Amino acid sequence: MAVKRIQIIKIGRFSYTNENVIKHIIKDFPDYEFEIIDILRILKKKKLIIIVNIYYVLKEYLNEFLAGQKSIFKLKKYFYGTTYIFNKFNSIIKSHQRGKSYKFIFQFQGLCNAYLKGVPLFIYTDHTNLANLSYPHIKQADYLRTDKWLSLEKQSYHEATLIFTMSSNITQSLIIQYNIIPDNIKQVMAGINIPKNSFVAPKNYKNKNILFVGVDWKRKGGPLLIEVFKEVLNIIPDATLTIVGCKPDVRVKNCHIAGRIPLEQVQNYYNKATVFCLPTIREPFGLVFLEAMYNKLPVVTNNIGATSDFIRNGVTGFLLNNSKKEYTKTLIRLLNSPDLCKQMGEQGHRIVYRRYTWDNVGSLIAKNIKNKLQIKQNKFE
Predict the structure, then answer these.
(1) Phi, psi at residue 196, to the nearest 5°?
(2) Could you tell me how far CA 86 lies from the centroid of its own chain?
(3) Which domains are delineated in the chain?
(4) Is the pLDDT of residue 380 over 50?
(5) Which segments within 249-342 are labelled E, that is strand?
(6) Mean pLDDT throughout 191-200?
(7) Ramachandran assignment for 129, one of left (phi > 0), alpha (psi -120 to 50 degrees), beta (any other)
(8) How far apart are CA 124 and CA 318, in angstroms?
(9) Residue 381 — very low, low, confident or very high, per pLDDT cuts 50/70/90?
């Protein structure tokens, strides 16, 4: 009798990625029963595991804390980086798999290993831990896990039937840093969290408004942007800066801080903006860039991570090198050039509209899963 069950493993919301991908998998496999496990939701109910894992953070990273390589005041950053929590995630998954059969298992990210002998495992990820070595403007040791944790992460990727990636830099990380065979990786990109045919309001590129959207103020380059904006004001005194997603303690004229707001309200700020600027220094992917481009904004950011996949330097925006001078010069040029902003914004919109939708991503994922399942089936016929 054919197996008619599919297991999906997720860890929280993953920037709305989970909901969108799951919706498309369900649509493409309509005759199957789905078992969707949110490990984070289960973990939150197990207070003892959370408490014990704090002990393991201290234990497993003790030498690095003592050596000053990692900050003991940032324990939250290392919470998912212990072998204890990785194995607990695996235990939760195994408890649900016990005594069941699956057509395949689909896992988001590499923070656990849902592999079950004899069952194809597919992983969709935006990052790897060793990819942190590619960011020149961060303290890399802050993000790197222990060797034991890395061995668990590597095992999960090597046991996967196929790994779906969002970007070329992560594809290369898996090949070069994790020794994954290229044929076992498929770059499917990601989609914007905006309906494809959503109306984009006509823009007034003479507004001279710079928009920043991000939750992690420091990692997203907020402090640099403030210093740059002060320089911009010296040349363009009526320029404005809008900060959405966080509430940093900054006191600069012409700066409006909106803080965290519902996703649907962010659209109002895209409509009023002239330029989108996010000088991020570490970025697993950056869906917010795609959303800015969909809203016909030129994008200014650092040339790191996945940004070069979708931002064409000088065409849809500018890729810089975390330089105050470069950012100041670029923003002044754009704010003084409404026609250039319009041209770049429309180019970016076309790229996102054609390529970066969840319909495209979902179709690619489903097509490749079906191909792998067909190959497996043919082997046993």
Answers:
(1) -55, -40
(2) 20
(3) 5-191+358-380 (3.40.50), 209-355 (3.40.50.2000)
(4) no
(5) 255-259, 275-278, 299-302, 317-320
(6) 79
(7) alpha
(8) 28
(9) very low
